[in-house]
Amino acid sequence: MRLHRVRRSMVAAASVTCMAVALLTGCGSDGGSEGGVTKLTFAASTLGDPGRGPLLTKWLEEFNKSQSKVQVSAAAVPYPTFGQTILTQMGSGKGPDLIRFDMPEFEAASDAGLIAPLNDLIDVSKYDLLKQPDQFMVHDGQRHGIIFEASNYAMFYNADLIPKPPTNYEEFFNTAKSLTKGDTYGLAFRQTEAEEAGVWQDIFNYVYGFGGAWSDGQKLTINSPANLKGLQAFKDLYDAKVIPRGADAATFRRMFAEGKVGMELNNGGYVTATRGQNADLNFNVAPIPFPVRKQGAILAPIVINEASPAKEAAATFIKWALEPNNQVKLQEILGASSVATVTKRSPEQLQKTPFLTVFDDLTESSLPQIVQGFEAKTPDIRKIVVQNVVAALQGTVDLKTALDRAQQQASQLVG
Predict the structure, then answer these.
(1) Where is the signal peptide (predicted)?
(2) What is the mean pLDDT of the chain?
(3) Which of 108, 206, 270, 402 is 20 to 30 A off residue 368, Cα-Cα?
(4) pTM score, whole prediction
């Protein structure tokens, strides 16, 4: 199990001391009591997802209907600013009571002592938790999170454009190139600093899929030969102009739904979002066709804010979420993702979406998008890596020099 020492240091305020967040009451933790009812706020970027957001809100309403003493309200915070916004609030001793974090921000908040330990609040022995991803929820014997969503990355492809999916990188490259004509592109991925977190998610698959890693657990290996090989494959696709350059994720995902993009590497949550944009799109999913069967995963814990005055009430919500029926409902909302516990796909689900088993079979080879051994520093390392990789894409520096520079800058950062 991957462990790291939890330091009780506060996260420094970013460029603001407290950002106003839509749907949050002010800038602090609600955790208040009104008429004997404890009111909580649950913040998650997925609540703003056009496909899953409304369904998640209804799921929260089911909790509220089942309770007389605790009520939870939804707070949708845009994904690009979610981590910085919430960490800044928590660092000021405020913020929502319950948060769905992505792993880099979860590690940073855990390391800074901003997350309430769950050992005394939730008895996890009562639940059949997924073992492989759940190990990342525990630090030095202290549980800081419960998996809200575990979503493995795979290759989405338009089955009308690609009857037979590529099974290796050469086929992947050639397929992307052959499909790129006029306003139709063979592939799409993020490639701008404005989408830093998304670029990190995209390049993660190329690094690990070509046998690389960001570290060996003790030292950073950003400029290793394997990393260079994987990121060169990423850059080759960019240079081949098989992607809509400059398009952000929202734009090229709409293009995929419209049949204007042939392939995209994405996580299981994208299934519901794609169907929400075009229910008639004939798409399928296959494992990413890179040399090594190892890919990223969106591992998203739900945590309790250390600053919340209503931790017991917040734990009530998490325990409700872990009940078998509520786990099944949550998994159906999330689409091709897994949840905290072992669940069984229904025959109806498998008939509607046969490729669900593709995602499920990838769980043991999927990794959260963090830097092993430097988990809490991942957001800072990510920024350095993405800046240098984007510079190489734009041609201001060659890729090897960019990775050498990233290695040096990140090594200085971590000491």
Answers:
(1) 1-20
(2) 91
(3) 402
(4) 0.81
